[in-house]
Structures are given as C-alpha cells and as structure tokens.
Design a protein that fits this description.
By secondary structure, the chain is an alpha/beta fold. The chain contains 5 helices and 11 strands; from the N terminus they run βββαβββββαβαβααβ. The chain is 24% helix and 29% strand. α2 runs parallel beside α3.
C-alpha cells in the first residue's frame, strides 16, 4: 500500500523565546521538528508531523498549514522555553514547561505506511523505543542527536554515563542516518574529536553519520 506521506517528522514543537546579549526575540515557533518539517514541505514533500501543541500557539501554528496535521495532538500547552546565547557564542535552553513525551503508539496510524521517519526531539521527549519499533518494521529512520544529550537537552547524559550510553547505542543500532552538530558531540562524547565520536557510533552500529558545524 503506497503512502500519501513522503516523510514523517517526530518531535515536539516549541514556543520559544530567544535571548541574545543585546535583545530578546519571541515567542516564536521553534524546534528541529518544526524547522525541518516546514523546509521539506516547501521543497514539495508531503510531510506528516507527530507533535503536541497547545492553544497558546494559535498565533504561530498557522505555519503548519503546509503540513499534514493529522498527527499533531492537542494539549493544554506547548513546550515552552527560553533559548539563551552567551557572549562566547554557546547557548543553553531553559525549559519552562514541557508537553508529554512521544511514543510509538502516538504515531497517527496512517503514517505507518510511510517509509521515511525523521526523529528530532528537543529534550529526550521522543522515546527511544519508538525508533526501535520503526526499525523493526523496516522503516528508514533519520535521528538528530541534539535532543538526546546534545545542545538542546536540559540534563545531558554523555556516553560516559550508563543512561547516555544506552540511549546512543540503541539509536545507532536502529537508525539509518545519525546527525549531530559539533556542539552536540562535545556534550555527548566529552573529550573526543568528531572523528573519534563517529568511530564510537560506528562501533555501536551506525554506518551513516552526518556532523554539522
């Protein structure tokens, strides 16, 4: 059965305020799930999004009109954060409130006919077992590590800790493509170069790894 959706994106969208040293912007629509889904849709792909959002997003959620919105679930509020850029250019995220986590059972049923899934949480909200269950069904899964201990995570578990290692091992075993920024890798693989981090992930089972600046 052919899918009417080209790719499904999984991750909670964000109501985000951005604070620079000299100004504050927002609230605006944020998160890798929001950005990547809209960009792919603008490029002509039929994109389904699995995410929670609340009525506090009514003024900006219209950006999703270009998407298939059947997978977007109502909640009392949207995940809300403050993204702070420090003087040295690094950043951290302060979460004010978080929508529920996302599980395999939350995927809109008709989306499961799709072959391609992009997993991009902000802060561990996409359960790791969701990736495993998609892989078991032969799906092609792309995972962004930013929300699994990388730059957008609140409490960051590295591979030097039991939980962090277990998460990254499972993702590398079950994802066709792993993507991480250099900032993500510095958090998840402290003290290693990007090449060393990629070698570790390759040992966990990942063959295709993309590192961004």
């Amino acid at each position: 059965m052919a899918s009417e959706i080209d790719v499904v994106v999984v991750g909670n969208i964000i109501k985000e305020t951005i604070e620079f040293q000299d100004r504050r912007i927002g609230p605006v629509l944020g998160s890798p799930a929001a950005y990547s889904s809209i960009v792919m849709a603008v490029q002509g792909k039929r994109v389904g999004l699995v995410s929670y959002y609340g009525n506090d997003m009514d003024t900006i959620v219209s950006a999703f009109d270009i998407l298939d919105r059947r997978g977007i679930m109502d909640h009392d509020y949207t995940t809300t954060n403050l993204l702070v850029y420090k003087a040295d250019g690094t950043k951290y995220v302060n979460y004010q409130r978080k929508a529920p986590s996302l599980y395999f059972e939350d995927i809109y049923p008709e989306y499961l006919t799709c072959q391609y899934f992009k997993i991009c949480p902000m802060d561990y909200e996409v359960d790791v077992s969701l990736v495993q269950k998609l892989a078991e069904r032969g799906k092609t899964v792309f995972v962004d590590l930013g929300g699994y201990g990388g730059a957008t995570s609140d409490i960051r578990y590295s591979v030097d800790e039991g939980k962090g290692k277990k998460v990254i091992e499972s993702l590398c075993k079950n994802a066709a493509i792993i993507k991480a920024s250099q900032e993500d890798l510095a958090s998840i693989f402290p003290g290693r170069t990007a090449e060393e981090a990629a070698e570790i992930m390759n040992g966990y089972g990942s063959t295709d790894i993309v590192v961004t600046m």
